[in-house]
């Protein structure tokens, strides 16, 4: 493996790039990373699962063990949210297996055989996606048009959620309401379920002409994000009293065209979002303490203390947006930071106490489009945001509540005055040619024949 550190674009990006060993059996969905990026699971060419860990000192991925139990190559891997113990679900055409990674490492150290627990036999329709609940007690298995809620402790099926008319592509549990599950499908609709009772809470109408590729929960706000295959990204409200209405939308097609990054037929490929990551980064107020009003610093501290960002990875670009203002912070070609075109990716946020010593750092695990190589990259969106703020001369703040009636901010908000009607209708004077007695400058309407359907085309006007 090779490791290198790159500082690109005048210090805007911090990229820590590690090229991993090529895996011949690599395919979409065949790799995953655990919470906080502790472990990385990759399917090898012998249908096994290589578990790697990142070594900070040597700046490389190190193989710690190999999990063997499938007769076919696993197509789905998913780590649990918990870090103690670390659990992994793998799915192939034969079985769905649960692995206790923490226990397997102990068994390997004590020269004990490593075994996983078969959860269920894989349904005939196959498995397209697996996601863990917030408490890691159940998993949602997307198979065909259905979703199976499976208890990983009792190894029993709890519910089968049916309602989609085409293949379910993804699902995600809400971190704010633990029994709420959002699913999306090729049928271009999303559904919201109660995973505990199996009740369908909401079914959307057809909201796009393109299938929904993924659904991502926002850990910081009661929202979820949908990514469509045509490059549209939409945020929806999932709060308790909401009607699940759309909040914001981003068109990656227009965004990349607007900055001149792509054009023509390449837009459809480049604009499709492969991975999304909502991120709330903390700001150091000591750098701007002199600019804040000292008499009321606590009231504005919450506004300046953090910023909500959305990191988007496409096959050829990385995009950072300010989620509050929908402002584009940065758009960067992956080839410019020596990552290359990618076919699939996984994103996670490293904790502030990470061994890397970098807070608010995003760890990107990507597979390349042309050479089946995996690459681990560390990106700092906070550095990008600070560089963007440094180039802006004016200070902009998005208010969280309406201005007071006596506030100067309302000085320009004057109601529009409409003229009062006198009740008299002014008639237009007709210009008449005295010699010929013809009316001048009046429209002549050419009426068309009414068709048998009852509809007629609009009248065409001309002037004499």
TrEMBL record:
Q: Which UniProt keywords apply?
A: WD repeat
Keyword flag Zinc-finger: no
- For the region Disordered, what residue ranges are annotated? 403-433
Residue ranges of the WD repeats are 161-203
Q: Which domain of life is it from?
A: Eukaryota
Q: Gene3D superfamilies of this UniProt entry?
A: YVTN repeat-like/Quinoprotein amine dehydrogenase
Transferase among keywords: no
Point to the regions of Basic residues compositional bias: 423-433
What's this protein's name?
A: WDR27
């Amino acid at each position: 493996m090779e490791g290198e550190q790159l500082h690109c674009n005048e210090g805007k990006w911090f990229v820590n790039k590690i090229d991993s060993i090529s895996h011949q059996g690599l395919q979409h969905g065949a790799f995953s990373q655990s919470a906080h990026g502790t472990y990385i699971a990759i399917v090898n060419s012998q249908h096994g699962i290589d578990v790697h860990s990142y070594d900070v000192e040597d700046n490389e991925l190190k193989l710690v063990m190999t999990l063997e139990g499938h007769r076919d190559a696993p197509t789905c891997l998913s780590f649990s949210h918990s870090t103690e113990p670390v659990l992994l679900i793998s799915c192939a055409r034969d079985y769905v297996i649960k692995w206790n990674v923490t226990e397997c490492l102990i068994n390997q150290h004590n020269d004990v055989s490593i075994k996983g627990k078969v959860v269920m036999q894989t349904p005939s329709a196959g498995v397209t996606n697996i996601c863990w609940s917030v408490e890691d007690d159940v998993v949602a298995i997307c198979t065909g048009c259905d979703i199976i809620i499976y208890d990983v402790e009792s190894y029993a099926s709890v519910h089968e959620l049916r309602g989609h008319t085409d293949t379910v592509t993804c699902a995600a549990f809400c971190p704010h309401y633990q029994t709420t599950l959002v699913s999306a499908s090729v049928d271009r609709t999303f559904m919201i379920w109660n995973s505990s009772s199996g009740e369908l809470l909401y079914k959307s109408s057809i909201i796009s002409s393109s299938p929904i590729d993924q659904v991502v929960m926002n850990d910081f706000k009661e929202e979820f994000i949908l990514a469509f295959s045509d490059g549209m990204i939409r945020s929806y409200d999932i709060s308790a009293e909401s009607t699940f209405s759309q909040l914001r939308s981003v068109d990656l097609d227009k965004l990349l065209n607007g900055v001149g990054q792509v054009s023509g037929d390449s837009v459809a490929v480049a604009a499709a979002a492969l991975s999304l990551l909502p991120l709330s980064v903390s700001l150091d107020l000591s750098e701007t303490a002199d600019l804040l009003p000292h008499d009321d610093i606590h009231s504005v501290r919450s506004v300046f203390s953090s910023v909500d960002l959305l990191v988007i990875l496409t096959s050829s670009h990385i995009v950072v947006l300010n989620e509050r203002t929908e402002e584009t912070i940065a758009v960067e070609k992956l080839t410019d930071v020596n990552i290359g075109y990618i076919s699939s990716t996984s994103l996670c946020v490293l904790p502030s106490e990470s061994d890397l010593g970098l807070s608010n750092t995003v760890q990107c695990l990507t597979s390349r489009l042309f050479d089946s190589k995996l690459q681990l990259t560390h990106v700092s969106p906070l550095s990008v945001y600070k560089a963007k703020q440094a180039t802006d001369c004016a200070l902009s703040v998005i208010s969280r509540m309406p201005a007071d009636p006596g506030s100067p901010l309302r000085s320009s908000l004057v109601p529009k005055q409409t003229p009062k009607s006198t009740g008299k209708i002014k008639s237009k004077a007709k210009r008449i040619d005295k010699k010929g007695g013809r009316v001048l400058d009046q429209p002549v309407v050419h009426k068309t024949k009414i068709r048998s359907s009852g509809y007629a085309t609009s009248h065409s006007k001309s002037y004499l």
